[in-house]
Structures are given as structure tokens and as C-alpha cells.
Specification:
The chain has about 150 residues and is an alpha/beta fold. It contains six helices and seven strands; from the N terminus they run ααβαββββαβαβα. The protein has helices spanning about 5, 20-30, 45-55, 105-110, 125-135, 145-150; strands spanning about 30-35, 60-65, 75, 75-80, 90-95, 115-120, 140. The chain has a five-stranded parallel sheet with strand order 2-1-5-6-7, sandwiched between helices. Strands 3-4 form a two-stranded antiparallel sheet. Strand 3 and strand 4 form a beta hairpin.
């Protein structure tokens, strides 16, 4: 007989979203997204064109660039230098940061309490994901929002 206590999956693990259906359902539910690490159009790259695609798909993008102190707007929206200045709160925080830089954002994300944190394709930090999941925040790692949006809305 299997011991249910030793085989039970901890409840916080349910916040680590990996199934395609959960990912698509998440994108269908969120509307307001803070993008930490967004880049201005002149710099380009995924940290610009993915949020741009999201904005065109109807999401409200709140730019939170890490660099570019001279930039005041991205995607026609005033930038924030921290989640602490973002009001009202966002549904989702999207991270365009190197995996080694992700932990420096943990405290501000926990304080902001978004429903979801999405680490863009190539970005994964299991310790941060666990801390967020234990706080009741859904986490998606190493996936591209644009690819997932294209599955929903070609």
C-alpha cells in the first residue's frame, strides 16, 4: 500500500504552470502586464517586439525597463523604474532578464502580488519560481508569450 503522505504533491506546485492548456488559459485571463526588462524600439529585440505584439493583441503593457534611464516612454506608455510605482496592480509580471538577474526582482514581485509571473523563453530560475508559487503566484518559465499568443490568435 502506498503512503499518501509521501506521494502527495505539495499544493504550491499547482502554481507552476507547464501544461499548454494552463498557459493559454492564463493568457486569456490577464489584461494588465508589467514587463520588467522591456527595451525601447531603437534597441529592439524580443524585449521590445514581444510586448509590442502583446499590446497590439489588446493587453495593457506597463513598461519597467532596467536600463535606459533617459527613456521616458516605451510603446507610447510612461515607464516605471520599479513595480512599487505601478498602480493599479498588474495581473502579470513578464520578465526579460537573465536567469542570474531574476532573484533581484523577487521581493518587489512578492510585494506587488501579481496573479502570474512569466519568465520569457530562455529564462528559468527554479528557486525564484518556488518562492513565488509558495506565495500563491502562478509561474510560467521558459516560454515565449508571442508564440503562445500566435497559438491563440493567429
Amino acid at each position: 500500500m502506498t503512503d499518501k503522505l509521501t506521494t502527495a504533491v505539495p499544493a504550491w506546485r499547482a502554481h507552476l504552470l507547464e501544461r499548454q492548456a494552463d498557459v493559454l488559459r492564463t493568457l486569456d485571463k490577464v489584461r494588465r502586464v508589467a514587463v520588467i526588462g522591456i527595451k525601447p524600439e531603437a534597441v529592439g529585440g524580443p524585449a521590445f517586439y514581444v510586448p509590442d505584439r502583446m499590446q497590439r493583441a489588446g493587453y495593457e503593457i506597463v513598461p519597467v525597463p532596467v536600463y535606459y534611464p533617459e527613456v521616458q516612454e516605451i510603446l507610447g506608455v510612461p515607464v516605471h523604474r520599479s513595480l512599487a510605482t505601478v498602480t493599479p496592480p498588474v495581473d502579470m509580471v513578464q520578465l526579460f532578464r537573465r536567469p542570474t538577474d531574476v532573484p533581484r526582482h523577487l521581493e518587489e514581485i512578492l510585494a506587488h502580488r501579481p496573479r502570474v509571473v512569466w519568465m520569457q523563453l530562455g529564462i528559468r530560475h527554479d528557486a525564484v519560481a518556488e518562492a513565488l508559487a509558495r506565495a500563491g503566484i502562478d509561474v510560467i518559465q521558459d516560454r515565449c508569450v508571442q508564440v503562445e499568443l500566435d497559438r491563440m490568435r493567429p
